Amino acid sequence: MKAVEFLSSVRIFSDLSDSERFALARSLRRVTLEPGQVLFRQGDAGSELYVVRSGRVLISLSPPDGEFIEIQRFGAGRFFGEMSIFEDRTRSADCRALESTVLFSLPKHDFFEFMDSYPRAAIRVMYRMLQATTQWLSNISKFHSEMVAWGEDARRRAITDDLTGLYNRDFLDYALEDMVVQARVKQEPLSVIMLDLDHFNKVNEVLGYAAGDGVLLRNLVPVLRTVFRADDVLARYGGDEFCVLLPATTLSTAKELAEQARVGVEQVGSVGTSVPGLTASQGIASFPLHAVDAAAVRESADKALYRAKQRGRNRVEVCATEVCALEMRDTHA
Question: Which of 2, 3, 16, 104 could form a disulfide with 20 if both were Cys (CB 3.0 to 4.6 A apart)?
């Protein structure tokens, strides 16, 4: 099997086009390991991501004052070593082959060149990596996960907003499409909240844009992180507008969370500034109740947000199916 064909069978690369996989495949280096051969040890310098083509490898820890700890076994199609690409860190564990193994390695500088040439494709790869890493880390102890998890200073610039640290719009768009597909397959609801700060332009006018950015960081982001859950996707949509994706979440639960966020923002207000009374308006829509595809469910939530603004601000509006459908028809007429 050629490298390009193999990449199509690996989940983190499965969403790429043939041309994108071909561009990535040109940077891959083949690595062959004999049974028991060590690929790297904890503390070694690392600058490559590995994907197992065949065979199996063992990721483990060998504390100097403790006994051998097995972390994970990876077989064909699995990846590891992503921290060496996204962080300037040494290897956090040992890796050796359990049997005759063939790997493909992807050097850090080649991945960043791919990111520059194919930014949206790189976002899709990183999204899949984050999903897979989160899933397998959830199966091991907190102590072990801290040894191998992505650090807080990971270089996620391609998928996060520089100011807030939340996901950016490119990542949001892809995550929403993926979550709609998953919700359809699992026959689960997916709710979307669009949130916009009320009269935030006045904050910028009075305090200046730099101080306004500080208000977002101090007054809004902590509320969002406190109210919403670990599986929810928090993203800055643009300016002072934000979007929250809530997988496997009913409309009623989404409304409860949105109301908690509204109260939280209102209580924090503009503490520490000369602009009192910071509030937020929100609109909610749910798949498949209000829309059956990613673009439509987000647009339905945006329509509900617009109505919240019209009806006095500092409130949560849920998409009314008939109203949303009429407004969307008029918009696209």
Answer: 16
Block residue for tokens 């050629």 = 2
Phi-psi region of 190 (alpha: psi -120 to 50; beta: other; left: phi over 0): beta
Report the predicted TM-score, pTM, of the whole model to 2 decimal places: 0.63
Burial class (CB in 10 A: 0-12, 13-18, 19+), 153: exposed
Give the pLDDT confidence score for residue 319 in this predicted structure: 92
Q: In the structure encoding, which two tokens stand for residue 321, read together?
A: 């199916």
What pLDDT sits at residue 308? Answer: 96
CA end-to-end distance (rounded Å), the chain = 49
Q: Which residues neighbour 245 within 8 Å (Cβ) at sequence distance 6 or greater?
A: 172, 175, 176, 179, 190, 191, 192, 232, 233, 235
Backbone angles phi, psi at 164, to 5 degrees: -95, -20
- Please state, as a whole number, how many other Cβ atoms lie within 10 Å of the Cβ of residue 231: 11
**What backbone phi and psi angles, to 5 degrees, belong to 297?**
-70, -35
Query: Within the chain, which residues score under 50 in pLDDT?
Result: 140-155, 325-333
Query: In order of start, what are the domains of the chain with their CATH numbers?
Result: 3-148 (2.60.120.10), 189-332 (3.30.70.270)
- Please tell me the distance from the alpha carbon of residue 17 to that of residue 4, in angstroms, as a whole number: 10
